Amino acid sequence: MKRTIIYTLFLLSFVCQQANATHIVQNQYDSSLNQSEHMSWWTHDRFGLFIHWGLYAMPARHEWVKSREKMSDEHYNRYKNLFNPDLYNPEEWAYMAKAAGVKYMVFTTKHHDGFCMWDSKYTDYKITNTPYKKDVLKPLVNAFRNEGIRIGFYYSLLDWHHPDFTIDRNHPQMPQNPELLKELNKNRNMAKYREYMKNQLTELLTEFGQIDELFMDYTYAEGENGKNSKDWDAEGIVKLARKLQPQIIINNRLGLTENRQDWDYITPEQFMPQQWPTVNSQRVPWETCQTFSGSWGYHRDEYSWKSVHQLIVMLAETVSKGGNLLLNVGPTARGVFDERAIERLNGLAHWMRFHSSAIYGCTAAPTEYACPNNCILTYNPNTNRLYIHVLEWPFKSLYLKQYKGKIKYAQLLNDNSELKFRTETKKGSHMTENTGADDVIITLPVERPNVELPVIELILE
Ligand code: GLC
Question: What residue stretch is flagged as signal peptide (predicted)?
Fold first, then answer.
């Protein structure tokens, strides 16, 4: 008996090892590979959490504060000398993220202020040199991975601390008179800064296990005194990242537009595209990054917070146009999510508990399914199910144009309760329905389901 158990365990571990090996082989990124293949997990998962956390949580008035208020290095240094997030507990963050239905997380390893949230050996300007003294990145990565959440790194191309990064129009030390720039930049050497970036990226992409997404931020080539892809050696960065992490998914903010292999997805920020975005008339993978309140870093006095309802609609709408939502939280300088963020994440968690099948694995509905009034459609091509997100609950009837013969079964998603549907129109003196012969009418309960955004699930023929 004992022997059989040991043998079974041995067999099992062997099978697992094999499965793992296959997984690694399949993960090898090959430049001839269809881009959609190495992105299949990403287009399936749809929902990520952005985390903007750094020294700027202390001034608590936007992550660009150093530039906006033209602070000197010395002045900004006060935050580094005081940063001590005593309540930091990444397990707590990961738990909340998981509950909210998030499948991947993207963390600001270094933002524009140049401050590094890991123990980089290429700078002293880092978390381990604050009163907190400890690295925050490794524990964060571990905590999220333990919850089954994939890991992405945000890395700023801008650096308002590095002595070789040339002063430009975004820099805190940009002079009023741009003619002075030459003189100010004469001892700064971007080649050295490029090397610094590559060294740091190598650390980030070799010391933290598998990194699934790389969010580089950003190129501002247009207009005066900006920076372009050559300033970063963007091509070199893409090559390096693909070499070190073959499966990595890279955004389009390095400023490389010529070669489709240089980016995997586009990044509309803080706005909702009208339809699935295209590049050269081709629909492309896209991820919109959105804030709860307008600022990315923790902003104490920002009051334009989106409601839970708005955020859920945003998620559904993004998926209905074939995109991903990367929703941002800016933790405080104590190391916690503030109560307004927690309230929103809880709201999302409650909705996702019952409705995630209308998000994961879903995309835009085929055009043959017309979108009813006041609704959003998402569609799962694998299960052949259509999801009608009902923004305004109509009275008793939901009219579906040209759906005759297309529906096998209909139900409310929150409780799997059946919804009857018919094609025959009612004709009576007081209620004559003027629907077309191929239309379907779903009979709804008068009372709207008690969820933020009710969803009707159609199992299609
Ligand atoms: C912009 C901002 C930056 C923010 C980012 C998020 O590029 O400069 O502060 O981190 O967008 O996408």
Answer: 1-21
